[in-house]
Amino acid sequence: MAKKKHFYLILILGSLAALGPFSIDMYLPGFVDIAQDLNSTESTVALSLSSFFIGISAGQLLYGPLLDKFGRKKPLYFGLALYIVASILCLAVTNVNQLIVLRFVQAIGSCATAVASVAMVRDLFSVEESPKVFASLMLVIAVSPMLAPTAGGYLIAALGWKYVFVFLGFMAVLILLASIFKLPESYKPDPNYSLKPKPILNSFLGVLKEPQFSTYALISSITFSGLFAYVSSSPTVFMKIYEVSKTGYGWIFALLSVAFIGSSQLNSVILRWFTSKKIVTWALLAQCAFSLIFLVFALNDWLSLYSTIGFIALFLCCLGFINPNAAALSLAPFSKNAGSASALMGALQMGLGALASVVVSLFSEHSVVPMPLVMTLAAFIALFCLFVGTRFIKTEIAASADATVVGH
């Protein structure tokens, strides 16, 4: 009986973690159809993705304090209810600006599920069990970008793009019901927890003053913005420029997700022989080289569908090595402020990702160039941050469970 309860808990928490990735990726194959139906352009429709990233960035900073103040379930219910209402309203949009605003609201709602799932793993499972549960959540998050665009492509081809929001709303209703009836309240509300801006801001400022955090969090966030540039421009590049079908686009997106996930899994093996810092350095150098060659090919009109897929796969492979190591190094100096540091890093990633997707959407819809241009800029700026930032780190804390905490 205990094993069955354990299974249901992980299933619900995994569903909470999956809602965000599904919300980002499932409607991507519909960009061309959405633009036609709303008398807009794919570039403007892409701003609805940017607004979603901005909502996630803001929401990560919002829900952490709320979960500690009011317990886990009340903020979770609020977020899911907000998400469901926004999904229903997305069905009634008559112009692209309405969609952009509603996607922001939807993101604020979905953030509750992401933050609550992580917090509840820590609450509900022992120190020995938590790593296995987190691994299950990470697998769900990793697999979602492979499943969501493929499923979305078939759904849009069969029924139209609005049915994506029907599916997402229905998914959120099921998760809400499961949370109400099957998920226990795992944290006692703390009425003394302050929601005043000053102590919260002081906590974040304390994190930013740690050179190791600011260096590696920037590297992680800036290189991640290259991923968001790819995600936001990929519908235009593959479906409009290369004239791939909606379902074909879903399969390409799934294939490229395998490149990212595969390299991040391989990273765990390589860590037996190399330090996180060394892996970040070499992966960044490789990413700079691959993205620059990608840009040269794009500027000279040498790209084909397959070479474009190949260059993106190489960029994502490098990211699979950079991101986990940079994230681990950025969080290594913290114990007390680990939650604030994690939330701040997530907000930085999503904020810079939103900026990258906005920049890409401002360019022409008839060229592949904006994608490799933003990727190249991201890789070289991150490399610059590595060489400059590491000079300010007096004693680097290793990214391991045995890392000691250094205060500055």
Automatic annotation (TrEMBL):
Q: Which Gene Ontology BP terms does the record give?
A: xenobiotic detoxification by transmembrane export across the plasma membrane
Query: Which Pfam family name is an example for this entry?
Result: MFS_1
Primary location: membrane
Which cellular component appears as one GO term in the record?
Answer: plasma membrane
The protein's superkingdom reads Bacteria
Every copy of the Major facilitator superfamily (MFS) profile domain together lies at: 9-396
- Alphabetized UniProt keyword annotations: Cell membrane, Membrane, Transmembrane, Transmembrane helix, Transport
User: SUPFAM superfamilies from the xrefs?
Assistant: MFS general substrate transporter
Keyword flag Transmembrane helix:
yes
Q: Name one GO molecular function term.
A: xenobiotic transmembrane transporter activity
Q: Which locations, inside or outside the cell, does it occupy?
A: Cell membrane
Family according to the record: Belongs to the major facilitator superfamily. Bcr/CmlA family.
- Protein name in UniProt: Multidrug effflux MFS transporter
Q: Which organism is it from?
A: Pedobacter endophyticus
The organism's taxonomy opens as: Bacteria, Pseudomonadati, Bacteroidota, Sphingobacteriia, Sphingobacteriales
